[in-house]
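stage 2 :: seqdesign
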């Protein structure tokens, strides 16, 4: 924040430094300071896209997800190809349990710039709408792309649940075992009910 303050002193008409400092302040829960910086950036840059994107970010940190969605909708309308706006709106839709809308935004993101995180988030939406086969596909892609940004055990654990839900019992068991091997100290994640259900499913599959 101090470095950005110096950058602003040297470049007082450059909105990007106000935006960067606003982001930093927001990450430190300094909402008033962030809003002040965003307002300064918007005063320098009359672009409506920037105003709506920053306005949505403020509302999101205030946990006003409905208000944030209104702002992000306007940002996406202004620049439909902007992935940052799509991501922000998709994540907000997930918080509002609008899984279909979230999947719509993340379909575009994953087609253009997929990451382990974007596949993981879309998998959560697929699971919430009982689309377990598609969730499995996303979780597999997340596992392949993962670079220490997500709890890898969580990915295997969720994929095991999806495998079990679609009747793929052996892959489900393998994922459970992998999750246990990756983090044996976190076995509390794998409940006895989980394992019992999986075992019963496996026996049913063998029969």
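stage 2 :: out
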């Amino acid at each position: 924040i101090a470095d950005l303050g110096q950058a602003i002193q040297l470049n007082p008409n450059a909105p990007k430094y106000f935006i960067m400092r606003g982001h930093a302040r927001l990450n430190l829960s300094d909402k008033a300071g962030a809003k002040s910086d965003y307002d300064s950036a918007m005063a320098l840059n009359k672009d409506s896209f920037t105003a709506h994107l920053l306005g949505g970010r403020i509302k999101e940190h205030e946990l006003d997800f409905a208000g944030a969605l209104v702002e992000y909708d306007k940002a996406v309308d202004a620049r439909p190809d902007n992935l940052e706006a799509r991501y922000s709106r998709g994540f907000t839709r997930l918080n509002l349990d609008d899984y279909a809308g979230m999947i719509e935004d993340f379909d575009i993101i994953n087609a253009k710039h997929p990451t382990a995180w974007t596949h993981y988030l879309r998998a959560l939406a697929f699971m919430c709408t009982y689309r377990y086969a598609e969730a499995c596909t996303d979780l597999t892609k997340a596992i392949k792309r993962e670079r220490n940004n997500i709890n890898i055990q969580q990915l295997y654990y969720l994929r095991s649940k999806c495998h079990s839900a679609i009747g793929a019992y052996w892959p489900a068991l393998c994922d459970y075992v992998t999750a246990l091997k990756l983090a044996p100290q976190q076995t509390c994640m794998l409940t006895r009910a989980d394992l019992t259900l999986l075992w019963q499913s496996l026996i049913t599959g063998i029969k």
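stage 3 :: structure notes
- The CA atoms of residues 110 and 118 lie 7 Å apart.
- The radius of gyration is 21 Å.
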